């Protein structure tokens, strides 16, 4: 019975030929209530169908599920090492956890963990990261850099630049970086990056870089608390993005920067990061655990520390904070 109803729903969308079909029209076609229609729509979304819902217009089918297989990614790869070993999962609690486990078992540098869905994805400061199925890039990359322990935060900034470059190449969009590593479009977040270390004393065993990119989410995919602060590449461009191509491009951009970083150091990466930074030269508010500083963003240090100059001329070093840019600035 359920499969028959699914078939009727898909028939209705097929007859609509890419146009909107109202909830009532759908209900009449299927022979059920509008509440039941809503449930079928949600079931489709959970299975990876991308649907647009607009009040007074109804529903429109945008795309059938596009799964990202390891083979599909590797066919598009142009890297030497990054992504040459891929662990693909349909649904996980967190790609970071899997990457940490693989690192402990001796996985090679460049190993990539990709999931269609994260049920407990997380970002900076232990915040949750919304990762619905078949809509975004949810991945973790394993590195084993031979660098001093204190330089590891530089890789977070490198990852932000790589993601920004990849998005520019795959889409027509131009993201900005909000310190230290959030990517924004039109003031809304599209990408978050989380870097975690496995280390002992001053020796780095591995660096796990987690990245979440809101690729093909529609407005209705976001929970209410994120509607005003998050967006997606699809929402901003009106075009669906090949997630496999985006992943391959992120890895290519990352490897190019990473190879250069290991030879030349952080200076060229710092210049690139600042070229994407949305806050430089602007007055911003940095809210930390015990104080709030308002000042002009001067740039970042080689350690990735943000420098703020307040109205008294004092320069503050910001290591970890929530950053706000007043809208009138």
From TrEMBL:
<dbReference type="InterPro" id="IPR036388">
    <property type="entry name" value="WH-like_DNA-bd_sf"/>
</dbReference>
<comment type="function">
    <text>Acts both as a biotin--[acetyl-CoA-carboxylase] ligase and a repressor.</text>
</comment>
<dbReference type="GO" id="GO:0004077">
    <property type="term" value="F:biotin--[biotin carboxyl-carrier protein] ligase activity"/>
</dbReference>
<keyword id="KW-0436">Ligase</keyword>
<dbReference type="InterPro" id="IPR036390">
    <property type="entry name" value="WH_DNA-bd_sf"/>
</dbReference>
<feature type="DNA-binding region" description="H-T-H motif">
    <location>
        <begin position="23"/>
        <end position="42"/>
    </location>
</feature>
<dbReference type="InterPro" id="IPR013196">
    <property type="entry name" value="HTH_11"/>
</dbReference>
<dbReference type="InterPro" id="IPR004143">
    <property type="entry name" value="BPL_LPL_catalytic"/>
</dbReference>
<dbReference type="GO" id="GO:0016740">
    <property type="term" value="F:transferase activity"/>
</dbReference>
<feature type="domain" description="BPL/LPL catalytic">
    <location>
        <begin position="69"/>
        <end position="262"/>
    </location>
</feature>
<comment type="similarity">
    <text>Belongs to the biotin--protein ligase family.</text>
</comment>
<dbReference type="InterPro" id="IPR030855">
    <property type="entry name" value="Bifunct_BirA"/>
</dbReference>
<dbReference type="InterPro" id="IPR003142">
    <property type="entry name" value="BPL_C"/>
</dbReference>
<dbReference type="GO" id="GO:0005737">
    <property type="term" value="C:cytoplasm"/>
</dbReference>
<dbReference type="GO" id="GO:0009249">
    <property type="term" value="P:protein lipoylation"/>
</dbReference>
<dbReference type="GO" id="GO:0006355">
    <property type="term" value="P:regulation of DNA-templated transcription"/>
</dbReference>
<dbReference type="InterPro" id="IPR008988">
    <property type="entry name" value="Transcriptional_repressor_C"/>
</dbReference>
<keyword id="KW-0067">ATP-binding</keyword>
<keyword id="KW-0678">Repressor</keyword>
<feature type="binding site">
    <location>
        <position position="189"/>
    </location>
    <ligand>
        <name>biotin</name>
    </ligand>
</feature>
<keyword id="KW-0804">Transcription</keyword>
<keyword id="KW-0805">Transcription regulation</keyword>
<keyword id="KW-0092">Biotin</keyword>
<dbReference type="Pfam" id="PF08279">
    <property type="entry name" value="HTH_11"/>
</dbReference>
<dbReference type="InterPro" id="IPR004408">
    <property type="entry name" value="Biotin_CoA_COase_ligase"/>
</dbReference>
<dbReference type="Pfam" id="PF03099">
    <property type="entry name" value="BPL_LplA_LipB"/>
</dbReference>
<dbReference type="Pfam" id="PF02237">
    <property type="entry name" value="BPL_C"/>
</dbReference>
<dbReference type="GO" id="GO:0005524">
    <property type="term" value="F:ATP binding"/>
</dbReference>
<protein>
    <recommendedName>
        <fullName>Bifunctional ligase/repressor BirA</fullName>
        <ecNumber>6.3.4.15</ecNumber>
    </recommendedName>
</protein>
<dbReference type="GO" id="GO:0003677">
    <property type="term" value="F:DNA binding"/>
</dbReference>
<feature type="binding site">
    <location>
        <position position="118"/>
    </location>
    <ligand>
        <name>biotin</name>
    </ligand>
</feature>
<keyword id="KW-0238">DNA-binding</keyword>
<dbReference type="InterPro" id="IPR045864">
    <property type="entry name" value="aa-tRNA-synth_II/BPL/LPL"/>
</dbReference>
<keyword id="KW-0547">Nucleotide-binding</keyword>
């Amino acid at each position: 019975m359920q499969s028959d109803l699914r078939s009727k729903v898909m028939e209705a969308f097929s007859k609509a030929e890419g146009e909107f079909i109202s909830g009532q029209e759908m209900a009449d076609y299927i022979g059920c209530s509008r509440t039941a229609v809503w449930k079928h729509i949600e079931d489709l979304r959970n299975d990876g169908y991308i649907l647009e819902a607009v009040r007074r217009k109804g529903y429109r089918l945008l795309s059938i599920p596009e799964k990202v297989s390891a083979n599909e990614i590797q066919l598009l790869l142009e890297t030497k090492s990054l992504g040459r070993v891929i662990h693909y999962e349909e649904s996980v609690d967190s790609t970071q956890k899997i990457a940490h486990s693989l690192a402990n078992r001796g996985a090679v540098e460049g190993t990539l963990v990709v999931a269609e869905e994260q049920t407990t994805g997380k970002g900076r400061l232990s915040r949750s990261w919304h990762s619905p199925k078949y809509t975004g890039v949810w991945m973790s990359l394993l590195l084993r850099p031979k660098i001093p322990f204190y330089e590891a935060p530089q890789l977070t900034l490198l990852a932000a630049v790589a993601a920004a470059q990849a998005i520019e190449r795959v889409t027509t969009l131009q993201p900005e970086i909000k310190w230290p590593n959030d990517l924004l479009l039109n003031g809304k977040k599209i990408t978050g990056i989380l870097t975690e270390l496995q280390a002992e004393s001053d020796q780095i065993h591995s660096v796990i870089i987690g990245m979440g990119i809101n690729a093909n989410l529609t407005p209705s995919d976001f929970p209410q608390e994120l509607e005003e602060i998050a967006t997606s590449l699809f929402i901003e461009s009106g075009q669906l993005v090949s997630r496999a191509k985006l992943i391959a491009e992120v890895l290519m951009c990352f490897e190019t920067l990473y190879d250069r970083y290991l030879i030349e150091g952080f200076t060229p990466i710092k210049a690139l990061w600042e070229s994407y930074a949305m806050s430089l030269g602007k007055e911003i508010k940095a809210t930390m655990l015990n104080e709030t500083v308002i000042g002009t963003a001067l740039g970042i240090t080689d350690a990735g520390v943000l420098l703020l100059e307040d109205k008294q001329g004092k320069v503050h070093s910001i290591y970890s904070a929530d950053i706000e840019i007043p809208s009138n600035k």
